[in-house]
Amino acid sequence: MASSQRLSILPKGLVRPRALASRIQPNASRRKSGPYGYTQAKALVFSKPGEPQDALSLHAHSISPSIPSSALLARTLAAPINPADINTVQGTYGAKPPFTSLIGTAEPSAVPGNEGVFEVLAAPGGSDIHKGDWVIPARSQFGTWRTHAVAEADDFIKIDKQGLNPLQVATVSVNPCSAYRMLRSYGPSAGLKDGLGMRPLEVGSGAWFIQNGANSGVGRAAIQFGRLWGLRSINVIRERDSAEETDALKREMYDLGADVVVTDAQLHSREWRDQLAEITRQGREKIGLGLNCVGGKNATALARSLSEGGTLVSYGGMAKQPVALPVGLLIFKDIRFVGFWLSKWNEKDVQGRKHMINDILDLIRSGKFKDVPVEEVPWHWETEEATLKDAVQAGLGGFRKGKGVFVFGDT
Ligand SMILES: NC(=O)c1ccc[n+]([C@@H]2O[C@H](COP(=O)([O-])OP(=O)(O)OC[C@H]3O[C@@H](n4cnc5c(N)ncnc54)[C@H](OP(=O)(O)O)[C@@H]3O)[C@@H](O)[C@H]2O)c1
């Protein structure tokens, strides 16, 4: 693991872990403002991977007012519970967070949470970040399930908060960015790169893409970018308990700009082949891209729906089943199977990431992009550990009305 990752909650190069740890005292008080200007803080932590219910605990600590001169102190406003965060706690994610004793845990521990928005309480002099500004983590695995963070100014990206609410900013950097990157990188294009290392889209080309998990955060974003960029989408959702609920979800997808919405069952039905032919005008219109976050049979059906030479991009495995690749699709249809991981893209293209985030926030401000439905999980000083853990545990359950997001009170 890179040292920058290990120290991402620390002012880099300025404070040795022990030095900062000595300024952070565990369980000092349950008051939010402690004596002598100490900030009382709490974080969800885990020291060993496991199911969130078992692995997570709520750790109270206090932060000294004398933080390093180049560091900033921020309080968390909102932090989502994404599937990848839960997989991180379970130990099944592709990257491990830093395990340290910096906040005074008995054992080296990690704070989960990849994204979130913070309000700056104290900023270093000479920085362009000031008290009251909103910032988001500049790196993956920052650890956002905490009431407060102390870190170097360049561990954050400053956000122009004008016209935005904390939920919109807290949820911008993972799901919408993944959809943006995948459509830009694998969507129909002239094969050239723009200045940001991304392929320019043939805007208005009307080309099709197909995706499963269409009602996920990523899926909803892909529908909307597709519509904005002139791509057409076929969207696969899972059936709900009743036809009315399924129709209501389909309507939500159409309202976002979906062109076609079908259920899992339709995708696997005998009629799908004919329906697809009708959608693509007997194959005259091509489906060049598939986005898969489910896996198993669903991914295979998606791949079968692609036109010759199409690409299936796998970016998630919600069904926890392997993606089976029929040999015929490889040989006779020349289908490409690739994987996508946003964290890698972010590392490679820091400027491109900032541009993308600002671009998406502009779309939100102008009402052209709707944020994902959320189930707010209030996190106040008195909130019980069990309440927070339950919210995390529920995050991987299917058929949810909205994404769980911790919304912090005046901690
Ligand atoms: N590779 C990357 O860089 C990257 C970046 C972002 C996200 N992701 C991945 O993308 C996926 C979606 O993330 P998200 O945050 O957008 O999700 P989300 O908003 O939390 O929504 C979860 C989605 O998964 C579906 N789902 C849940 N359990 C399922 C199951 N057993 N079988 C089939 N579908 C199931 C849900 O459908 P129902 O409503 O029908 O339950 C819903 O569409 C996750 O796997 C996540 O790890 C990957």
UniProtKB/TrEMBL annotation:
Q: What compartments host this protein? A: Mitochondrion
**Gene Ontology BP term (one):** fatty acid biosynthetic process
**Stored InterPro entries:** ADH-like_C, ER, GroES-like_sf, Mito_Enoyl-ACP_Reductase, NAD(P)-bd_dom_sf
The UniProt GO MF terms for this protein read: enoyl-[acyl-carrier-protein] reductase (NADPH) activity
Protein origin, superkingdom = Eukaryota
Ordered alphabetically, the record's keywords are: Fatty acid biosynthesis, Fatty acid metabolism, Lipid biosynthesis, Lipid metabolism, Mitochondrion, NADP, Oxidoreductase, Transit peptide
Please give the GO cellular component terms listed in this UniProt entry.
mitochondrion
Cite the EC number: 1.3.1.104
So what does this thing catalyse? Answer: a 2,3-saturated acyl-[ACP] + NADP(+) = a (2E)-enoyl-[ACP] + NADPH + H(+)
Ranges where the Enoyl reductase (ER) domain occurs: 55-406
Please name the PANTHER family in this protein's record. ENOYL-[ACYL-CARRIER-PROTEIN] REDUCTASE, MITOCHONDRIAL
What protein family does this chain belong to? Belongs to the zinc-containing alcohol dehydrogenase family. Quinone oxidoreductase subfamily.
This protein is called enoyl-[acyl-carrier-protein] reductase
